[in-house]
Amino acid sequence: MANMRRYYRPIAQTDPARPSGALTLAGGWCWFDSVEVLTRVGSEGLLPAADLPAEVRARLLAPRANIAGLGWDAPRLMGIVNCTPDSFSDGGLYGGASEAAAAARDMAAAGADILDIGGESTRPGATEVPVAEEIARTRPVIGALAGLGVPLSIDTRKAAVAQAALAGGAVLVNDVAALGFDGALAALVAGASAGLCLMHAQGTPETMQQDPVYGDVLLDVYDFLEARIAMAEAAGIARARILVDPGIGFGKTEVHNLALLRGLALLHGLGCPILLGASRKRFIGRIGGAEQADARGPGTLAVTLAAVAQGVQLHRVHDVGEVAQGLRLWRAITQVG
Fold first, then answer.
1. Among 15, 33, 156, 306, which is least packed, fewest CB within 10 Å?
2. Where are the beta strands (DSSP E) in the chain?
């Protein structure tokens, strides 16, 4: 017998003609007055928001707690600083720590609210980087940026790398393995009182694009993240310190990516801010007709704005200035304060 659990996807709106009974989504800039009820056997259609189960309603409405010094009353941008020779878009772009730090400063000046420093490529087919090498790539950059006044995130799945970064001034651990790679990471984050981003991935970077299969990708990702939040809470990491990321491109086909992007608002039911990392991904190039990764800025902006319209709070991007400009226009047009 099919699992008949019901999932509730808020139909996010930003129109200024807001009905009197509409509810504010996650304390942010979107409102909703209906939800789509989803099950493993299909959609049950729309339900008035007033008829939501009390616990679901509470989680959808609750303003999200500040994480890494960031509030979620407006969309935020995370600048990508890849200190790697082989990342899919900008690997090898920065010749050393000083060049990477200079690029990060430019991102901060262009509007990045937080900077994500990574020393291990997670592109499809990438192999694991030794811990010492990953630390050697990231620690000098974090040290150079510690006084910048912009929060720093470490993009790693390894406890030792995270420990070095947190000691150097990072305040968020962005774990693409969602605590599934290094058993020591959860305790480290709990003890450090740092923020944590849990990302969904099917498989490892080496294997994730080898024919990924899902029953229902949106519901599967939701269930996975729900379970990993529970794992983090059991380790002493409060839900108020956790972000969730659907992992666009991590063990997903183009069809999977698009299904997740259409249904992103469902993830608000997890009670955490949502991070989206779709910048310059391959599906953007294929659909948008941009073979070169660094030519996918317009497509990235389109995906970002579609996610912002669903209330997604944090957007991990390469082209900070361009996306920041687009967000300013979007907010002016939709009258987001």
1. 15
2. 7-10, 23-24, 31-32, 34-39, 42-48, 76-82, 114-118, 152-155, 172-175, 195-199, 242-245, 275-276, 314-317
Bridge partners, 198 (sequence order): 175, 244
158: annotated active-site residue: no
Q: How many CB atoms lie within 10 A of CB 133?
A: 12
pLDDT tens per residue across span 7-46: 999 999 999 999 999 999 999 999 999 999 999 999 999 9
Q: What is the DSSP pairing of strand 152-155 with strand 314-317?
A: unpaired
CATH superfamily, with its number, for domain 76-334: Dihydropteroate synthase-like (3.20.20.20)
Contacts of 210 (CB under 8 A, 6+ apart): 203
pLDDT per residue as tens digits for the range 114-153:
999 999 987 777 778 999 999 999 999 999 999 899 999 9
324: Cα separation from own chain's centroid: 17
- Average pLDDT rounded to a whole number, residues 264-270: 98
Q: Where are the domains of the chain?
A: 7-61, 76-334
Q: Mark whether 157 is an active-site residue.
A: no
Task: Judge whether residue 91 has pLDDT over 50.
Answer: no
Beta bridge partners of 36: 9, 46
Q: Are residues 104 and 145 in contact, defined by beta-carbon separation less than 8 angstroms? A: yes
Which among 158, 252, 281, 296 is annotated as catalytic?
Answer: 281
Mention every residue, 6+ apart, whose C-beta is less than 8 A from residue 132. Answer: none
Catalytic residue among 137, 316, 328, 331: 316
Using a cut of 0.90, tell me whether the model's pTM lies above it.
yes
Residues paired with residue 199 on neighbouring β-strands, in sequence order:
245
The CB-side HSE value for 89 (13 A sphere, CA atoms) comes to: 20
